[in-house]
Amino acid sequence: MCPQTGGETPRRAYAQRRTTRHDMVGGMTMGTTRKTQSIAARMMRGLRLTGTALLAASALMIGSVPTPAVAQGQFTPVIKVNDDAITQYELSQRQAFLRLLRAPGDVRELAREQLIAEKLQRAEAERLEVTVEPEAVRKGMEEFAARGNLDVEQLLALLAQAGIAAESFRDFVTAGILWRNVASEKYAPTTNPTQSEIDLAYAEAEPTPGVKFLLTEIVLPASSEASLKASRMRAERLAKISDAEEFSRAAVRFSTVNTRLNGGERDWTDVQSLPPEVQGTLQATQKGGTTRPVYVDGIGVIVYYVRDRETIRSTNVGTLLEYAAFMIPGGRTEKAMSEAARIRAEVDDCDDLYPIARGLPREQLVREELPVGAVPAAYRAQLDQLDPGEVSTSLTSSSGNALVFLMLCNRRNDVPDSVSRDQVANALKNRRIGALANDYLTELRAQANIQYLR
């Protein structure tokens, strides 16, 4: 407990217990090793180059990357991984890909490490009979391209200019998704964070700058010319719906994607994670509005209803303090201090105060969450010394007739609505799965027979 005019122990340094920043929009990272994982993160940042810069980068490489037509010995094995082999062609393709993404360090060594890991990952997926659907691969390619503000076709065109085959990029994405599926199947049931872990992570969450949308979606089929024509006509009618509940009912009735089971509702979504074709119309749609229909190849005709939106310009956020103040009659009398000690022995958190206050006037127990600047100054000075669950009895009411039993319930970042507890929980779980997957891959490599032939 904190200092009082009597004898509570000093506050533990809250900052020392802070964890690393939690990324709310990133998915599960399944790197080949911790070193490769770190480099992969830098690769993703490299892909955020503009299309012009990527074109320039690829143009510089056209002359340096051998094309399949002229490469000599392109299918010669250069590395054996158990019963599989990595060819010179695969190695050259990966090196070219990494250079295009401006990967730092020894690109040849990184390419070898990645390809070895992917051979092991594919073999383990095959052993466990874990597969990946073509649609998941397509979505993975779209997400990767979107990080450079490109669609898949634009990215493939840039890769082709650098002599990189579409199949090489597809193999890269497929291996990552396969390994994610393996790790999820193996570890997901045992990696759920506890509520206290989620509480702590949420308290320290930081938003990612960008435009976020809370959407309800309807996706209509477009597998043929006839269905596309019918879907466009229906989408025009759906785009005129201005009521959220009516749009949700339409999603249940007409939409072809899994969100229809939830009335078409999606969680908060960064606009950059959506198909490039829909980003412009979403940016132009305000809260309570419906987008115009947009056709996305491989998905269908999409109409969105915007339930909410927000623009986050900075990761800098304020702090919220949640506290409970229980008034004990008698001021700083011996009787009141004894009652405070009795209550302190019975409570571990703010929720435990409600049974004690049952039947008493409502104003005797006050619990609220406020920005730091809005907390009464006397309370703020005491709360600044406390960790959640700790208590101060240093204050009395303004009249002096009541002792204030002041407990800090929580201290957290004042994050926007688009950062949810579910996102925090998923991020925690994904990080744990990622760490276990890295250890798993390390074991596979230690047991593998790897021969460097060239």
Contiguous runs where pLDDT drops below 50 for at least 5 residues: 1-71
For the report, how would you describe the main beta sheet? 4 strands, antiparallel
Assigned CATH class of the largest domain: Mainly Alpha
Strand content: 15-25%
Radius of gyration: 28 Å
Number of helices: 15
What is the distance, rounded to the nearest whole angstrom, between the alpha carbons of the first and last residues?
65 Å
The appropriate CATH architecture of the largest domain is: Orthogonal Bundle
Question: Can you offer a commentary on this structure?
Answer:
It is built from 15 helices and eleven strands. It is of the alpha+beta class and 454 residues long. It folds into three domains: 170 residues, Triger factor/SurA peptide-binding fold (Orthogonal Bundle); 103 residues, Chitinase A, domain 3 (Roll); 96 residues, Chitinase A, domain 3.
What labels would you give this structure?
alpha+beta, Triger factor/SurA peptide-binding fold, Chitinase A, domain 3, four-stranded antiparallel sheet, 11 strands, 17% strand, globular
